Prior knowledge:
By secondary structure, the chain is mainly alpha-helical. It folds into two domains: 2-78, Glutaredoxin, CATH 3.40.30; 97-204, Glutathione S-transferase Yfyf (Class Pi), Chain A, domain 2, CATH 1.20.1050.10. It has eight helices and four strands; from the N terminus they run βαβαββαααααα. A hairpin with a 2-residue loop joins β3 and β4 (57-59). α1 packs parallel to α3. The longest helix has 26 residues, at 97-122. The chain is globular, with a radius of gyration of 17 Å. The two termini are 27 Å apart. The relative contact order is 0.16.
Amino acid sequence: MKLFGHDTSPYVRRARILLVEKGIPFERDPAGWVSPSEEFARLNPLMRVPALLDAGQAVLDSRLIATYLYDRYPAPPPAPPAGHPPLQATPWSADHRYDDENVLLAIDGALDSAINVFLMEQDGVLPAASAYLRRQTQRIARCMSFVDGLLEGRQTLREGVLSFTDITVCCALDWMIFRKRYDVAQHANLVRFLAAHRDRPSLRSTHPSLAAPAPPPRAG
Length: 220
């Protein structure tokens, strides 16, 4: 099994964390689309990360990767570290699936908007000069407020387990702080949620601040 995608990506990170949590061995191709490997370029027409290759089966999206890993590797995950909740046995809570999927949609919406603004700023286009980018920043704020409200009084979305959706929230918050995309500190519930899981080994070892500097673009 090989996972493709750069270490700073929150979408790649959520797949990395899930693989570690489920105890599935895998190899890495840490190049992103700035410097893609030939194998990755052939594999993924979407031109985005992550992608997974498992015994010839390609899986091209982080949500689909999560579904695939739960379907293909249903064995119970290893016991969690002391003081941390176990990984949820299914990708969605049976009683709250659509609520959980709404949270994931909100997180992905906020991340997509934040990454869009980030990349446009790299090209010199700032939100102050673009009504479209201002709408993106508004979407980020609304989505973060929505998730913050759902986490009031909770350390996980579903009591006693860490779900894939919880993992996606952690990855989004860490990326926004790392890239200075959004003031997470204004949401007390999000701050408390992130602090509760910061020392979990799978999260600590994959934090975007640990990513190696990006390599120069490949020739050709």
